[in-house]
Design goal:
CATH architecture of the largest domain: 3-Layer(aba) Sandwich
Radius of gyration: 22 Å
Number of helices: 8
Largest sheet: 6 strands, mixed
Strand content: 15-25%
Helix content: 10-25%
Distance between the termini: 36 Å
Shape: globular
Strand order of the largest sheet: 1-2-3-6-4-5
Number of domains: 2
CATH superfamily of the largest domain: Alpha/Beta hydrolase fold, catalytic domain
CATH topology of the largest domain: Rossmann fold
Number of strands: 13
């Protein structure tokens, strides 16, 4: 196995595979990209996929906590290194070095560092790659659960396509092997069954996986898919007023997620489907929806009927579903 920790862009990106990291270098090559912006803008890592699996935490560039407030970050780095030169190096290479920190944390943690297959980071962030799919672990747990050893039982869970996901870091190869056994694809490139359409597709395509991480250790976060079904009629319109914002916050037995501005992160409609990340909040106990209207800028509890029955401005909550994508629990 080969593991690429933010492989360098200068003199390597888009070059011949013989002079850079490539999936043909080992039976399994996984790569973590954390500083994939252009070298012109200060990035050191390559964005090009070069492994059997390429992980892009936070999109693969500008990691949380790096370069957000440059002056403060510089002084923090100098303080941690207790040396000006080393501190500046730490600041400049903050995102580049994050790959090693993420991999190191993945060795001794119960948090799975689960990443989700998607074509682009933008599609992942908007929730497009999780809509209409079963939680990812439905395809991994089958291998360890005797109750699903029968192939017909497996097919029962395939009424919807399973969300393909892998663990980033130390357990990447193990989860990759498990996923491919479930998909009935040989994971050994040297003995892959070339008569299998699935095998051909899987070995030739770019396998990009995305996830969110925190700005400091512990970096690992959990991902929650939130589906909200609303019905509203505001003065005859089928949408909220232009300056109205809807926030969603999930509370669990171990904590709560940040309040997310749904109207900012997604295209607002009566059917809202998106993904957020947070430290493990445990079992979900409640979900709060709030409205924020300009210019008051005051968070107000969402009332499903915003006014009395004689007023046409009404919002109805039909259903909320919260799914922990790591565990599949709802």
């Amino acid at each position: 196995m080969n593991i690429g920790l933010d492989p360098a862009e200068p003199y390597f990106q888009n070059t011949d595979p013989r002079v850079r990291l490539d999936k043909n270098d080992a039976l399994f090559v996984d790569v973590i990209h954390t500083d994939a912006s252009s070298i012109i803008t200060g990035g050191f890592g390559m964005s090009q996929g070069c492994g059997h699996v390429d992980f892009y935490p936070n999109g693969g560039w500008r990691q949380p906590g790096c370069n957000e407030t440059p002056l403060k970050t510089v002084f923090d780095s100098i303080g941690k290194e207790r040396n000006v030169i080393h501190g500046i190096r730490r600041f400049i290479g903050c995102s580049h070095a994050r790959a090693a920190l993420l991999f190191t944390e993945s060795i001794n943690t119960d948090c799975p560092f689960m990443a989700y297959e998607c074509s682009t980071y933008e599609e992942f962030a908007s929730g497009l790659c999780t809509k209409g799919k079963n939680p990812c672990l439905s395809s991994h747990k089958l291998l360890d659960n005797n109750s699903y050893s029968n192939r017909s039982d497996r097919n029962d869970l395939q009424t919807l396509p399973s969300l393909q996901c892998l663990q980033m870091g130390f357990n990447a190869h193990k989860s990759w092997t498990s996923l491919h056994k479930y998909m009935n694809i040989n994971t050994n490139p040297q003995t892959v069954r070339t008569d299998s359409k699935a095998a051909k597709s899987e070995t030739s395509k770019e396998n990009k996986y995305f996830l969110w991480t925190a700005d400091r250790s512990p970096y690992c976060l959990f991902h929650y898919r939130i589906q909200v079904l609303l019905r509203y009629d505001i003065s005859g319109s089928s949408s909220l007023p232009e300056k109205t914002r809807l926030f969603v916050q999930v509370f669990g037995t171990k904590g709560f997620t940040p309040a997310l501005d749904v109207t900012k992160e997604t295209q607002f409609s009566e059917n809202i489907d998106f993904v957020i990340s947070s430290a493990n909040i445990g079992t979900v106990v409640r979900v709060e929806l709030q409205l924020k209207s300009s210019p008051a800028l005051v968070m107000n509890p969402l009332r499903w009927r915003l006014s009395d029955s004689n007023d046409s401005n009404q919002i109805y909550l039909i259903q909320i579903t919260v799914t922990n994508l790591e565990s599949g629990n709802k």
